[in-house]
Write a structure and sequence with these properties.
single chain; 311 residues; alpha/beta; six-stranded mixed beta sheet; three-stranded antiparallel beta sheet; 11 helices; 16% strand
Length: 311
C-alpha cells in the first residue's frame, strides 16, 4: 500500500502580523539558573572568605568593591569559571536542564520565561544577550533544550506552522524541508551573544566606536557596554533582514528585558540617545525584571508609541 504523504501545515496568516522582535537576558530573566559565581567577601574581622553567589545576588553586589572581590588566585576568570565552555563538559546545558526540570516540579520561572515561549511559538526572530562566556553554538543548544522542555507538542506544531508561513511569505518557499531543517533555518536567523566570550570581545574591540568607549570605561561599566554592542548588532540584523525582504514599510518594534538594574539603565539611555535616532522607524521598549514580585517586569523606557501585550 502506498504511504500517504503528509503535507505540513503552513500558517499563511503570519503575513498579516506586525513585526515584533525580542532581546532576552538569560539568567534570572528567562531561567533561574543554579550556576554560581566564585567571589571573596570581606568579613567583620577584616579577613576575606571565599563565597559562592547566585547571578541574582551578583547583580546586586557587583559594584560593591569594598566588600566583594574576585578570587585573589585567578581573578575574574576564576570567578566566572562555570560561565564559560569547558572541554568535555557543557555546564550551561546541564544547568539549563536543571532549571527547566525545577519548573516542571513547580518552581516559578523567570519573568520573561513565558515571553520567550510566546516568541518561539509565534516564530519571531529573537536574540539572547548574556554576560556569560559561552559560544553562540552553546547558547543555541540551550534554546533547543528550552524548546524541548518548555513547549508542548501542540505548541511546537504551532511554531513550525508559523515558521513555514514566514518562509513562504518572506522567502517565496513553495516546498519545505523537514521540521528539523526548518527549525535550523529559524534558529540560525536569531542571534546569541555571550558578551564575555573571546570571539565576542574581539569583535567588539575591533569596532571603532566601541574602541573609544572601552578606552574610558570602568571595569563595572564594561558588561553594560558589551550588552549595548550586542543589542546594536541585533537591531542592525533586523533592519537589514527587513530591508532585504521589503518589510521596512510596516511598523517594527523591538523589546529588551533584563533583571540587572544597571543594564536596564544603561540600555534605556543608549536607546534614547543613539538607537532611536539612528533607527527612527523602529519602536523600542525596555523591561526591568529585577523585581520578582512583578510577573512580567516593569516597563521603564519606550521610544515611539508602542504597546507589547503579554511581554
Amino acid at each position: 500500500m502506498e504511504r500517504k504523504k503528509i503535507i505540513p501545515y503552513v500558517n499563511d496568516e503570519v503575513a498579516t502580523r506586525d513585526f515584533k522582535y525580542y532581546i532576552f537576558d538569560w539568567d534570572d530573566n528567562i531561567l533561574h539558573m543554579p550556576t554560581k559565581i566564585r567571589m571573596e567577601h570581606l568579613r567583620d574581622d577584616g579577613t576575606w572568605e571565599p563565597v559562592e553567589v547566585s547571578t541574582a545576588t551578583f547583580a546586586m553586589i557587583r559594584s560593591d568593591v569594598e566588600h566583594y572581590r574576585p578570587p585573589r588566585d585567578g581573578g575574574w576568570n576564576a570567578a566566572f569559571r562555570n560561565f564559560a565552555d569547558e572541554p568535555g563538559r557543557n555546564t550551561f546545558i546541564e544547568d539549563t536542564i536543571a532549571a527547566l526540570e525545577k519548573i516542571e516540579h513547580g518552581e516559578v520561572p523567570g519573568p520573561s520565561y513565558n515571553a520567550l515561549k510566546k516568541t518561539l511559538r509565534e516564530g519571531r526572530i529573537f536574540a539572547i544577550v548574556t554576560a556569560r562566556g559561552h559560544s553562540p553554538q552553546t547558547i543555541e543548544k540551550a534554546v533547543r533544550v528550552f524548546i524541548r522542555y518548555a513547549l508542548t507538542e501542540s505548541e511546537r506544531a504551532e511554531m513550525m506552522s508559523n515558521l513555514r508561513g514566514y518562509r513562504k511569505w518572506f522567502d517565496g518557499v513553495a516546498t519545505f524541508e523537514s521540521d528539523a531543517k526548518e527549525l535550523d533555518y529559524y534558529l540560525h536567523m536569531c542571534r546569541y551573544s555571550a558578551v564575555t566570550h573571546d570571539a565576542f570581545k574581539e569583535r567588539m574591540e575591533a569596532d571603532p566606536i566601541y574602541q573609544e568607549k572601552l578606552a574610558t570605561a570602568t571595569t563595572a561599566a564594561r558588561p553594560e557596554l558589551a550588552k549595548e554592542f550586542a543589542i546594536r548588532d541585533f537591531v542592525e540584523h533586523i533592519f537589514h533582514t527587513l530591508q532585504r525582504t521589503g518589510g521596512l514599510g510596516r511598523s517594527v518594534s523591538i523589546g529588551f528585558s533584563d533583571d540587572d538594574k544597571g543594564n536596564v539603565k544603561s540600555v534605556s539611555s543608549y536607546i534614547r540617545q543613539e538607537l532611536s535616532k539612528r533607527f527612527d522607524g523602529i519602536k523600542f521598549v525596555v523591561y526591568d525584571t529585577s523585581d520578582r514580585t512583578l510577573a512580567k517586569g516593569r516597563k521603564v523606557c519606550v521610544s515611539g508609541q508602542l504597546n507589547l501585550p503579554g511581554f
